């Protein structure tokens, strides 16, 4: 991952450097800001390659952005862009699009090589993520993606949780993550954009595949979110997702672990963290915090997974941590 911020540049030159090197060279846009505000400008971004796609996270104080014909000619991308607004917001306009605003928590989509103008909605500036997926890498119907003018995602209620979950999986995924998993997530995000634009039927094969990827991503997050509930079940999570229990089990059939095995593995993982991070916490409290229905069940499952009791695990980790502590060297 490549990261950069204006802290690396003299305050007098920060916006000029951002404008000429980062905005034009990396993002392919023209940036504008009043001269008297430039010395206080701050901008930071990260760029991570996901195969041929790119995931960008951008934070900046307020400034105006325009993607002009000259910018497009100098930095063509031919990519589908999916934007996630994480903070602040922006107002968009352009010759071919109706004016709209994107606020915190919203998503928008566009083709990379279409002109637009944007300005911040407030003094807090921008915080957003953008994934750029090359059009050539998107299996799709016969659709002209270069006609996708910037537009907010309309089906916020239906697709929003799936978009959020898939974006977060990409952010949290390590560089050593299985490339097929990352590819499935980028493909799902691209196809969510096509579904939202109305050019891909939600019942088509590609759409169903994208929805499976998104629902599986969200199902795992719901499991983690409700892991402390002893009554956590396929029925509970299926109800949260708005799908049948049978569909829930089908989602996990495509993975290496069933629903129940996934829940158990996550509970063991959380219990290991608690045993190590909170050495004075009673083991019974750890068990119930991780959703085990009884202390006996916790001991049985933990011993099967780790080959030792929770107490022995805690003692072994404490000895290991003391041996590696700088104070003891």
From TrEMBL:
InterPro entries: AraC_XylS_family_regulators (IPR050204), Homeodomain-like_sf (IPR009057), HTH_AraC (IPR018060), HTH_AraC-typ_CS (IPR018062), Tscrpt_reg_AraC-type_HTH (IPR020449). The keyword Transcription regulation applies. Residues 217-316 form the HTH araC/xylS-type domain. PROSITE patterns: HTH_ARAC_FAMILY_1, HTH_ARAC_FAMILY_2. Keywords: DNA-binding, Transcription, Transcription regulation. GO terms for molecular function: DNA-binding transcription factor activity; sequence-specific DNA binding. This is Transcriptional regulator. The lineage of its organism: Bacteria, Pseudomonadati, Pseudomonadota, Alphaproteobacteria, Hyphomicrobiales.
């Amino acid at each position: 991952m490549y990261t950069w911020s204006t802290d690396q540049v003299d305050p007098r030159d920060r916006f000029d450097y951002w404008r000429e090197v980062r905005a034009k060279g990396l993002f392919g846009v023209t940036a504008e800001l009043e001269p008297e505000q430039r010395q206080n400008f701050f901008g930071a971004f990260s760029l991570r390659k996901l195969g041929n796609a790119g995931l960008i996270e951008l934070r900046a104080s307020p400034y105006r952005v325009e993607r002009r014909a000259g910018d497009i000619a100098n930095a063509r991308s031919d990519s589908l862009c999916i934007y996630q607004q994480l903070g602040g917001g922006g107002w968009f306009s352009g010759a071919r699009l109706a004016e709209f605003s994107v606020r915190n928590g919203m998503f928008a989509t566009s083709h990379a090589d279409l002109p637009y103008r944007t300005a911040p909605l407030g003094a807090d500036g921008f915080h957003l993520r953008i994934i750029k997926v090359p059009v050539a890498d998107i299996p799709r119907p016969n659709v002209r993606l270069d006609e996708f003018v910037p537009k907010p995602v309309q089906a916020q209620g239906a697709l929003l949780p799936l978009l959020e979950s898939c974006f977060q999986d990409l952010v949290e995924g390590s560089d050593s993550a299985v490339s097929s998993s990352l590819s499935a997530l980028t493909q799902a995000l691209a196809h969510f954009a096509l579904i939202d634009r109305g050019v891909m039927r939600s019942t088509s094969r590609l759409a169903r595949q994208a929805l499976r990827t998104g629902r599986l991503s969200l199902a795992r997050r719901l499991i983690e979110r409700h892991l402390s509930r002893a009554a956590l079940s396929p029925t509970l999570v299926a109800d949260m997702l708005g799908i049948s229990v049978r569909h829930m089990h089908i989602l996990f059939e495509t993975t290496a672990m069933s629903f129940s095995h996934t829940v158990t593995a996550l509970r063991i993982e959380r219990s290991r963290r608690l045993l190590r991070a909170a050495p004075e916490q009673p083991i019974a409290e750890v068990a119930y915090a991780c959703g085990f229905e009884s202390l006996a069940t916790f001991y049985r499952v933990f011993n099967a997974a780790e080959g030792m009791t929770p107490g022995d695990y805690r003692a072994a980790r404490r000895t290991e941590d003391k041996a590696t502590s700088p104070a003891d060297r």
